[in-house]
Amino acid sequence: MTEFSTLSIKETISSLKNKDFSVSELVDSHISSMESGRELNAFITETADIARKKALDCNQNYLKGEEKPLEGIPLGIKDMFCTKGVKTTASSKMLENFIPPYESTVTQNLWNDGAILLGKLNNDEFAMGSSNETSFFGEVKNPWKNTKDNFTVPGGSSGGSAASVAAGMGLASLGTDTGGSIRQPASFTGTVGLKPTYGRCSRWGIIAFASSLDQAGPITRTVKDCALLLNSICSYDSKDSTSSQKKIPDFEKSTDESIKGMKIGIPKEYETDGISEDIAEYLEKGKEWLKESGAEIVEISLPHIKYALPCYYIIAPAEASSNLARYDGVKFTHRVDAENIIDMYEETRSQGFGDEVKRRIMIGTYVLSSGYYDAYYLKAQKVRAMISRDFKEVFSKVDAIYGPSTPSTAFELGDKKKDPLEMYLNDVFTVPVNLAGLPAMSVPVGLDKENLPVGMQLIGNSFDEESILSIASCIEKSAKFDLNPNRWWINE
Amino acid sequence: MNKLIKGETGDWEVVIGIEVHAQIVSNSKLFSSASTKFGGEHNTQVSFVDAGMPGMLPVINWVCVEQAIRTGLGLNAKINNYSIFDRKNYFYPDLPQGYQISQFKQPIVGEGSVTIDIDDKKSKTIRIERLHLEQDAGKSLHDQHPEFSFVDLNRSGVALMEIVSMPDISSADEAQSYIKKLRSIMRYLGTCDGNMEEGSLRADINVSVRKPGDELGTRCEIKNVNSIKFIGQAIDYEARRQIELIEDSKEIDQETRLFDPKKGETRSMRSKEEAHDYRYFPDPDLLPLSFSENIIEEIKSELPELPDDKKERFQKEYSLSPYDSNILVSEIEIADFFEAVTKGRDPKIAANWITGEFFAAMNKLGFNIADSPITIDNLSKLIKLIEENVISTRIAKDVFEIMLENNEDPEEIVEREGLKQVSDSGELEKIIDNIIANNPDQVEAVKLKPKLIGWFVGQVMKETNGKANPKLVNDLLNDKLN
Amino acid sequence: MAIDSKLVERIAKLSRISLTESEIKNLSSELDNILNWIEQLSELDTEGINPVFSSFDEEETKYRNDEINDGGYREDIISNAPLSEDGFFLVPKVVD
Questions:
Q1: Quick one: pLDDT at residue C44?
Q2: In a domain, C64, yes or no
Q3: A181 catalytic residue (yes or no)
Q4: pLDDT tens-digit profile of B118-128?
């Protein structure tokens, strides 16, 4: 059965067109992968019945030759996307039993293109975390164990999304990225993850974490699959005031474009501190690959980038503190009964939210509170402006930026759980992009000495996903990374 | 001079500022496409956005923006073509998002003014500090159950304009005039229906007192007063309360109070014991609100004539007194009614009839002008009959009474009931001669006391069932008795 | 700015989250740690810089027409409510 689950979407579609196998066979294979992979804890809700039923329609469409672009492709969806009639929890006790009466725009786009929901994927609670250890439904295990045979984290917050794709449970998945939540787990699991430009995808129906930073995106096995999914999920949505009306290009085509003559910048700030030796090696290797493909490597500087992380940890919690105020025990499933309204609020929220969420609500409340707003929140938004300006200047000279996705590869489960600040530092390379609203992706380049995947990050100019897809495609070809973790979870 | 209140230690001045919450006239809500209609079944005019469901996003309704611009222009205010929506964060069961989308630092409308009349001759300008757009909250019902409050979100998300005055108001009367004038302007503009019973217009009143010339005193805010009468009562009570506290050497707490209409008192709101910290910040779900100067100009060019201009025109065009003009322009419906009735008629007579008999009748019936049982046409005809001396003013009142019953054409009433004024001097002379002949004593008396001529007029009227032309009767009697 | 337990209690109150004594203690040191790290922003001179509140820079505001085409699905609105009756949300009695 596993041969189905290691196919790319591109290959699967051509096999389905060829009638090599039916959508039902494909879906059954993925359902059995999903069921035999429960040890990974990637799924919160499995929707096997929905998938089998929809597969029947898809079979018909192939028979009639009326298949849509993603007809019959089984996908896992991060549990931050509201799915009509299917439990959507944000991995929080607060929404443990929440069943949305509506479908998010992005997932609707996928279903309109014929894709099939396989299940809802685990993530850090309300997408707050970098290891998928803050989920109310338990941690997700990375399909890649390290050389000590210890469990590692899949990254976060889209840990379930990345782990499921790496383990062949679903051909691809959807994640959300507020500060690196797609790219960091993609990098930890050897998958391709892309965060589009802010405004490319509608945020309507995605449970909000930090509204000015949140963006949906795909996690896939290949760069081409990433482009395929991107073409489906991006759309202008009149229900989202921050949705872009810009024309959506043919992303798949970009993956075949040559990068000859492209100027690719390497920030000198990236090379100096904090990255592991292995990653530094791959960074160098990547430069060679790019040069071989005819691109020009240019040293650039992003002088304010070191302030991005503290800046992010003001803005994101501030927005979150407000976005999460609606979970008050009145409207959504979880409530702790109390004599008076204030106690009801306080107990409901105290018991409904996990520690990390509470911590961020507290930080956010503090930085917005009277007397601190200017010093923290306003200051951070000014720093954000400076960071955006840095990027703008650089993109007047280069077509894309190349660098590491993360300072290290996947760490062991429980390793950084105790120190929140240490966990935050994981996002150092991914966060700046969200502050500036730029598109960026992580591409797997190989394994490190611990036998763990290494991902490299490409950052594009605003609304130029095409360039980074072309470059990623080129890296993919040179790296020849084999997404094939030892399937330890099947034997146990 | 400001109105002063006498206390034990001397005279006190009241300083009042008012924040009005005016519901915008629009079909759908400020950020959603659910209906704003009043009185619907609970929770049926609620979209997922209005219920604060996860992942829901606001998109602004252009008409609400236009209405705010229109109102700003009607208040002679500066329109800001770049403004920002902020989130005002607090927890309340009828606030489903956990924040209200409002405008804090950069409102859509800046400084403006409203002119109120103090008396026939004097007027006063009340400065407006700002006007901003915001969402209304839902409604909690507390009397349905002993343990629970029931929450209805139909109002949640309805567009409001918060209009903030400067502390330029110095008496309960002025406060009432200010609200009436503001309401009138918005009704002229069609931006708020001003219906206080349905909650379309609510006022938060800031009251403080001081000795004339002193610094501003500590103020109390009386929340959500919803009738013009209560506004007056609340201010009078609150000012008294504060003066008594100070004169008893007690402190005034800066606090939020509620007006209890049953007791006619204000009382402290206990539930707001904690200090608020609303943590305003720009709503990341919404872009700044921006529009071109052209749009402002366009809206400006389509503004209707407003009460102050209309009043001036009525005085000039119809030679009406400031007093009559004021009454007639107070409501757009009255002004329109007057102008329609007076077309081709004597405006003075029309104005007198409308502000007199007609208003009295409407008041008695508890009707609005829109429910008037008498049509514009028929009232106009009645005035024509008076103007052309076909009937006397006295008879006109009787005809009017009949018209109230079934809106009958006054000409037909006069014809049918034979109410035409007797202006035939020959006929009247006969009657007068008869009365003189039969009352020699009175004829003697009138020679000493010319005022007694009124008795003869009365007799003539009696004989003619009131139909005699009073001027003609007077002239004839004067001729014959002097 | 040191974060003490009093400040943590105040923030928790504003956030409507009840905390135990030990949570207050832990959060005080954690928040203190995090905010100290955030403090590095103050090194930066941001004089004259216009803040950016969103990375979305498309100029024109999008407007909705003033049409009624939403609402009318009360069941969906209250279907997830922990406590409801007759189509109302129920909350512990609120007194003004």
A1: 95
A2: no
A3: yes
A4: 887 889 999 99
Domain count, chain B: 3
Respond yes or no: is residue A78 known to be catalytic: yes
Residues B176 and B34 occupy one common structural domain: yes
B69 lies in the same domain as B143:
yes
Q: Return phi, psi of residue A144, to 5°.
A: -95, 115
One domain, residues B145 and B275: yes
Assess B48–A contact: CB distance below 8 Å, yes or no: yes
Count interface pairs A-C at CB distance under 8 A: 161
- Structure-token match 């909250």, residue found: B137
pLDDT at B439: 87
Indicate yes or no: CB of C67 within 8 angstroms of CB of B27: yes
Residue type (1 letter), A222? T
Percentage, residues of chain C above pLDDT 90? 82
pLDDT value for A299? 95
Written as one letter, the residue type at B474 is N
Contact (Cβ atoms closer than 8 angstroms) between residue B241 and residue B271: no
Helix (H) or strand (E) holding A355: helix A355-368
DSSP of A403-451: EES-SSSPPBTTSSSS-HHHHHGGGTTTHHHHHHT--EEEEEEEE-TTS
Asked if B28's CB is within 8 angstroms of C68's CB, the reply is yes
pLDDT one-digit tens code per residue, B352-405: 999 999 999 999 988 888 888 899 999 999 999 999 888 888 889 989 999 998
Cα-based distances in Å from A228 to A4, A113, B92, C90: 18, 11, 45, 46
Q: How far apart are CA A290 and CA A443, in angstroms?
A: 13
Q: Count up the domains in chain C and report the number.
A: 1
Residue B219 distance to chain A (closest CA, Å): 21
Min Cα distance A332 → chain B (Å) is 8
Residues of chain A contacting B287 with CB distance shorter than 8 Å: 241-242
Residues of the domain holding C10: 5-43
Residues B245 and B341 in one domain: no
**What confidence score (pLDDT) does residue A138 get?**
98
| Domain with B30 in it | 4-299
Which two tokens mark B85?
């929506």
Containing structural domain, residue A51:
2-263+397-491
Residues B262 and B356 in one domain: no
Chain A neighbors of B277, CB-CB under 8 A: 369-370
Chain C nearest C-alpha distance from A181 (Å): 18
| Same-domain pairing of B77 and B162 | yes
Nearest to A244 by CA among A194, A201, A196: A201
User: Residue A422 half-sphere exposure, CB side, CA atoms within 13 Å?
Assistant: 8
State the pLDDT at residue B204: 96
Is the Cβ pair B34, C63 closer than 8 Å?
A: no
Q: Are strands A192-195 and C88-92 parallel, antiparallel or unpaired?
A: unpaired
Q: Which residues, numbered 226 to 285 in chain B, qualify as contacts with chain C under a Cβ-Cβ cut-off of 8 Å?
A: 258, 269-271, 274, 277, 279, 281-282, 284
Q: How many residues does chain B have?
A: 482
Please tell me which residue of chain B has the smallest CA distance to C78: B43
Name residues of chain A where pLDDT drops below 70: 1-2, 271-273, 491-492
Q: Determine the residue of chain C that is closest to B270 in CA distance.
A: C96
Q: Are A44 and A120 in contact (CB under 8 A)?
A: yes
Q: How many Å apart are CA C12 and CA B472, to the nearest integer?
A: 89
pLDDT by residue (tens digit) across C33-60?
999 999 999 999 999 999 988 878 766 7
- For residue A331, which of B285, B53, B33 has the smallest C-alpha distance? B53
Q: How far apart are CA B231 and CA B261, in angstroms?
A: 10
